[in-house]
# Entry
Amino acid sequence: MTDNDLRWTVAALVAALVIFMGARSAILRRAGVPVNQLGARGNWSQRILVSLAAVLDIYLLARAPLPILDHWVGASASPAPMAALVVLIVASLIIIAAQGGMGKSWRVGVPPGASDIDILVTGGLNRLSRNPIYLGIMLFLIGVALAAPGPLTFAALVISFVGLNAIISREERYLKDRFGPDYDDYTRRVRRWI
# Structure
């Protein structure tokens, strides 16, 4: 696989994920689900990460037709293009399956009201990880760092890990308040990441 092929494949995967998440959000909103909770008080870490993700997505989409961007951000050629591709595909499938498995409980941001989410999702990929979407995102970022190693992709990986842990802590407090002993039991059975 050439660097150019990898650039276009990464761009296609990013575009597919953005389209999937946008379409899923639109479908849930039409069903009356308040998907976007980023405006809720205290969701600053999630707003920052969503903004950084948008910047990274734009870079990953634009670097295919504009390979000069790699030079500008200090990205090197992939040392393992096939490994990068496998990690990116597996991560994409995890994100899609995990988000789909959350049903109407999926949100972007922690809801402000304790009764906003009716069901504690413990099935599907949530049997293996309490945060399978975030696990998929981190794997995707590892794949991106393999595909375009450089300061931008490594910074995205580190900042996302720190930011996602902050978000997970907020979500855990919300879920403990909302579901009490059921959530405590779930945390004893299933680890935070994997």
